């Protein structure tokens, strides 16, 4: 399509868990020319299928992609990880799954904002609380000198 999405991006965006499982199984163990996993294929915006599933809160697809060895810390063109994508949309279950699977809760985007900055800015108290209780640094400064607390006050 016009965004360079492949079938796995579309399945992730639509929450089609069975389709995602089939596609992940088909590419399992394959690598792209740059050495990344085939499940980490990028669209025009640098987003992987995991970014899409996390942004839409499709936990089953997130679980499938994580099990398929998707890179949970791969940044998109805005330096946002799948954890940022889930936090920005308030998807607590996706945030929880990614965090428990080892996603970096303190990885900054291009502006130095972490997933905790993102959830705080959007007013997602439950997501912010979970991140703060599970390793996210509430004192981390973004490039503008703001902490996640600045965004919620």
TrEMBL record:
Keywords: ANK repeat. ANK repeats lie at residues 45-77, 78-110, 111-143. Signal peptide: none annotated. Gene3D superfamilies: Ankyrin repeat-containing domain. It holds the Pfam family Ank_4. It comes from the Eukaryota. SMART domains: ANK (SM00248). InterPro entries: ANKRD_45/46/60 (IPR039323), Ankyrin_rpt (IPR002110), Ankyrin_rpt-contain_sf (IPR036770). This is Ankrd52 protein.
């Amino acid at each position: 399509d016009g965004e360079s999405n492949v079938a796995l991006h579309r399945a992730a965006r639509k929450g089609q868990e069975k389709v995602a499982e089939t596609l992940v199984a088909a590419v399992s163990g394959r690598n792209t020319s740059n050495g990344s996993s085939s499940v980490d294929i990028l669209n025009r915006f640098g987003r992987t299928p995991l970014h899409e599933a996390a942004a839409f809160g499709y936990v089953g697809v997130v679980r499938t992609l994580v099990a398929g060895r998707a890179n949970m810390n791969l940044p998109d063109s805005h330096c946002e990880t799948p954890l940022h994508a889930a936090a920005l949309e308030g998807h607590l279950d996706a945030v929880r799954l990614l965090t428990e699977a080892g996603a970096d809760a303190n990885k900054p985007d291009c502006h130095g904002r972490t997933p905790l900055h993102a959830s705080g800015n959007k007013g997602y108290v439950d997501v912010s609380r979970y991140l703060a209780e599970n390793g996210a640094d509430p004192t981390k400064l973004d490039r503008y000198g703001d902490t996640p607390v600045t965004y919620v006050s």
